[in-house]
Amino acid sequence: MNRLLYTVSLLLMSGLVVGGAPARAQQATDEEISEAYIYLLGRLLITRQQQLDFQEGFKWNELIHRKPGAVDWPNPNLDVAYSEAWVAVDESSCTIVTVPEIKDRYYTVQFLNGWGETLANINERVFPNRASGDFAVCLRGAKVELPGDIMRIDLPVPHSRVLARVALGSDPDRAVALQHDFKLRATGAPKLPDIPKTPIFELDKLPGVEAFEAAVTALDGEPDLSVGLEKRQANVREIAAAIKDNAEERSRVDGIIKEHAFPEIGKAGQTIGHGVVQNGWARPGVVGEYGLDYLARTLVNNGGIWANVKPEVLYYRGGKDESGGELSGDHAYKMTFPRQALPSRFAKYFWSVIAVDNVHFRVLPNPSKRYLLNEQTHPEYGSDGSLTLYFATDKPADAPEGNWLPIPKGQKFRLTFRFYGPLDGVANGTYWPPALVKLN
Length: 440
Description:
By secondary structure, the protein is of the alpha+beta class. The chain contains ten helices and 21 strands. The strands form five sheets. It has a six-stranded antiparallel beta sheet. A five-stranded antiparallel beta sheet has the order 3-4-10-6-7. A four-stranded mixed beta sheet has the order 9-8-5-11, with no helix packed on it. A hairpin with a 2-residue loop joins strand 1 and strand 2 (21-22). The radius of gyration is 24 Å and the shape is globular. Residues 1-24 have low confidence and may be disordered.
């Protein structure tokens, strides 16, 4: 396609003549509009959450310490105590992050940009010689005087989302105490940005053409650091210009989004973009850092926002049983790990599995108020050393209490299996959890 023609489409449609004859505008194709929409949606999912955060009461460079389990986003990790913030830095101000000394317990402080890309982590794996104390998070190139003993971390953008995680483990009270020892403070008075005003939508009601009405605001508010996606961003801007004051083009773009982009998102969601499915479990090809794979980035921002990078955690999503049937609370399921391949073998820190609905991706309410299985639910192992986990409305007769995750009757659901500190086959991409066997 001749990009120049489409870039000036508005002028052409207004009657501009080229070479003495009326010029005919060249429209974006269905495929170009669908791809541009999916690319833009990844950013809008972040601006959506940012607006919700500040409506809730977030303030720049101030941590909010959540009670365990008290987070409201897709696929939450219920093994950890979360603290959250939005950080602003500039050429004359850094933000000091104070990390308490933590031993024998997983923790990290994760920084993400406005596209959901992980920029940095602070923990003993990244800084083995300086795992606690004060760290200065600064804008790259900023000339800020800092104490000589402080560790400086440069970010490529002035604004970032922060998640601090502390594993609850067998002593949740200690985890909460450590959580509250994480601190943030700005060294000066950084320039604070306006919060982008973009559509705030439900995850089961994605925006249509109005997404492009917010495109300039969304794109101008945060650069996309992924080299090679400049063409996608240009496409978004061109389509946004083409629908302005043009009801016919606006209607066409809206129809293409609903007829092409939405089904493409649904289809790609089965494999988490360019991931691989085995045993009914999807493993993403990329997570936390996406490169050119904007499709995976959008899907992860939609179904599990604020995902970290693979060396920290690897996620598998279970959506089908061994026969390819969708998971439903109308049936009972089990999965069995043989003794030589227990989940603990593949996680340096911890593993867990949660069940979420397949629309909003929130954990499922149940009378037992149990929302995950992990070592802290005290699962029992078979006489041969194997581990069987059960997912059902009522506890199967042969299921130990700590091996059973309640599922509401009639509820369609998905499972998310996490391995923190991936090892062996989880780390190198050769492992998938066992298939789910339908019991009734």
